[in-house]
Amino acid sequence: MAITDIEPLSPLTGHEELRRLYLDEYRSLVKLASLLLDDRGACEEVVQDAFVRTLVAWPGLRDHTKAPAFLRSAVLNAARSRMRRLSVVRRHSSSSGPGSVEGADRELVEHAVVVAELRRLPARQREAVALRYYLDLSEADIAEAMGCSPGSVKTHLHRALATLATRLEEQ
Amino acid sequence: MIEDRIRRALDAHDPGVGEPPPWSAVEEAAAVVRAAHRRRRLVVSAVAAALVVVVGAAAVLALTDRDDGRNVVTEQPQEESTTTSTTEAPTTTTSPPTTVAPFPDPASVDGIYPDRKAYERSGVSAFADARAAATAFVKDYLGMKTPVLREVDGDTWTVRPNARATLTTTLTLARVGADGPWTVTGATTPGIVVRAPVRLASVASPLSVTGSAWAFEGHVDVQVREDGMKSGAFLGQTFVTGGGDQLRPFSGRVTFRKPGAGVAAGAVVFVEPSAEDGSVMSATVVRVRFGAPSAPAGLNGDSALRLDGVGPVTFGMTVAEAKAAAKVDLRQSKLPACTALSSVGSLSGLDLLAPDGEPVRYAVVKGGPFKTEEGIGVGSTQQAVIDAYPDAEVRETRIVRLSDSAAMVFHMDSGKVASMWSGPRDSANADELCS
Fold first, then answer.
1. Considering only CA atoms, which of B249, B260, B250, B189 is closest in space to residue B224?
2. Can you give the pTM of this predicted structure?
């Protein structure tokens, strides 16, 4: 089950539902974070931090059915914040390129190249691509998660696809 | 197809995630955060209480919320007005003035909102006191749902987005004519300090915005609005990223469509949205005029190195055009594959390079007063560069900032910027220019 399929939470059972969400969706959200960051430990911290924020914000959340959207936003924000602090060197080091899967089959290499190129995109473009092509969110949901307009989402996606197409063609 | 290829790769991507840590770890961390929030609220309350005591013999908290259907909490000013003017009516009058000019134009005092349309819609008497105008501004123009207003003095008010919030935005108001209705002429919040555009600047699309911000995750939404537009309407928008932990520089560029016929002015609205629901927490609003940007000054110590040029010189200008735009003496010399224009005297340290047979393509800063729009110059530390450009690539001896077509390269030596240049994107890997 992807996080987009989750039933809206009942306010009465909020904490319990949030706990269930944690158990069910922890991996999916870590994977989302890992498309933005290349440090798995950081990804796990980002997701745990997102649940902490959601739990703290719970009493003030006017619409508890928006918990999944709130979580996605929290993961994006925390990943963005983390990206600023992490050494940019690591993000762009060659170790994240196809060399790290040397010996694996051609398909794996190709996938790794795509993920490596995704991580080289500017932060907002990277987020838009991950939300669109990994979580299959609509432009409206992406806009909500990223805190911008659907028009901006279109722009980010358009630029990201153009850049990826060029760079992948060069590979 | 590129989209399928991305989808397949993301599906196949396996970061090797283990079991989640126990839920109790999340609950414990949340308890720590809540305790920290409580401590912060206590400190804020104590400071507020002290303030009340200091100013406050006269501070009587009688809520006098005038019910004009706007459902706004208005806090009483902490100091009584001590106006001693004997020639003018008190500015705090709540009764509408008996004579006001029909539909005076707030643009005459560079008012942002209520604007002429609002005057026509509600009648000028609806804005006969500053509180009503401030209320209209924060609700209709900024889009705050439950604002809490406080009068600082007659023409300065502060607003918080709700009763619990501590973030404040300060509003400046003016009257249209001596006894006319009020309008808001500007808004500032300490967390969003705008360096450009300045108030009443003449702006055109694309508009460069720079400044410093301290907002949730550094995120600040930017909108360009023309007069007559309220919350939700804009000519163009973007977002910029400042600091999430302290004031840090931001820069961005917003493209916007042409204003309506006859609309000469508007505002650039910088907003910190709520992390919780995207509602407006605080804002800085700068009044601007539409038109060609005012004639650029020549090259001077404030000329910033940009991805597309430096100060008044834009890449693509011929050598002659660059010299004319600079409006200062530039020494022309011939390098192996380029013509160089070098600044001299107190401005020395900048070289503009035009490859043979081409216009000016590069600007190289080796010293002097020249910095980037974010304040990075020769001598800035590596951390300062990374803070200013979080998306820049850090390489062995250089930090590279890239756009789709351009590059800005900072050469580092002993952890500091030794020189920097901007030019076409493919120059990012060049060891030497014009060699």
1. B260
2. 0.41
